[in-house]
Amino acid sequence: MAMDESEIQAQAQRLLDEISFSPFEQCQSLSREFAPIPARPGIYAIRHRTHGLLYIGKTKSLRGRFSGGHKAFLWAWLDKYSDEEIRIAFQAVPHWQNPALLLELEAMILRATEPPYNVQIPAERQCYAS
Question: For the whole model, what pTM was predicted?
Fold first, then answer.
């Protein structure tokens, strides 16, 4: 079932609210084990306790994305943030069968937040009437 633009925007806003405003203490702390993070598709954020969102991404497997490391962790270390100040917020998204939808959700969230560790922020799609 195809989603229209307003439904995609509403879903993007719900995901953004979840990863941005869930209590920091409820987010996944950094460790060598990421077992509490599901091996499901989703949107995730690397968050700082006081500075907020540092990085936002999408993945086919939330757990797999972190088990091999992540560049945002290195950048946080270079910025001299302690591991107690950094956490992972995530939301599983059941739309991996539609990768274009997940890509658009991520793009909308990135445009709304412009996290400092995201190097590229996708431009807004242009819709042209024929």
Answer: 0.86
Beta strand 42-48 with 52-59 is: antiparallel
How far apart are alpha carbons 115 and 119 in whole angstroms? 9
Note whether 91 and 43 are within 8 A (CB): yes
**CA of residue 103 relative to chain centroid, distance:** 11
Instruction: Give ∠ CA 69-121-97 in degrees, rounded to 5.
Output: 70
Q: In a 10 Å sphere around its CB, with 0-12 CB exposed, 13-18 middle and 19+ buried, how is residue 85 labelled?
A: middle
Residue 51 has pLDDT above 50, yes or no: yes
pLDDT digits (tens, 9 = 90+) for 11-29: 888 889 999 999 999 999 9
Distance CA 114, CA 43 (A): 15
Report CA-CA distances (Å) from 94 to 15, 36, 98. 12, 18, 9
CA separation for the pair 91, 40 (Å, rounded): 9
Q: Tokens 């969230």 label which residue?
A: 109
